[in-house]
Design goal:
Blueprint (H helix, E strand, L loop, with lengths): L1 H8 L9 E4 L11 E10 L2 E11 L28 E5 L2 E2 L1 H10 L2 H4 L2
Antiparallel strand pairs: 1-2, 1-4, 2-3, 4-5
Length: 112
């Protein structure tokens, strides 16, 4: 479901060398610590299939260490929500973009 959701979201906007990253449960993911990286494979200028890898992470920046606090009332309190981000565009890694995305949702930002 994750690959299908991201293929739909990025339909017509992907190029060879692109890589998508996501962890959003609302877009086919299971929970925030499971971060999925998806690479489209092209033939004749169109994606013909996708390669995906999912890794489980111990902490994705929730309001408590380890993410997924028992008293959370919103998804953002559990950590960084990545609802489809172009991590690599035409072969160029967007390090600043992913750092900004993760920094906006850091534990220090959500604590009093």
């Amino acid at each position: 479901e994750t690959v299908k959701a991201q293929a739909t979201k990025f339909r017509g906007a992907l190029s060879a060398g692109d890589v998508i990253v996501t962890n959003s449960p609302t877009a086919g993911g299971s929970h925030l610590p499971d971060i999925t990286v998806i690479t489209p494979v092209f033939a004749e200028g169109e994606p013909v299939f996708y390669c995906a890898s999912r890794g489980h992470h111990a902490d994705v920046g929730g309001t408590t260490p380890g993410s997924m606090p028992a008293d959370s009332t919103s998804l953002s309190e559990e950590g960084a929500v990545i609802d489809g981000f172009l991590l690599v565009a035409k072969g160029v890694f967007d390090e600043d973009g992913i750092r900004d995305l993760l920094s906006m949702r850091s534990r220090s930002d959500s604590m009093p």
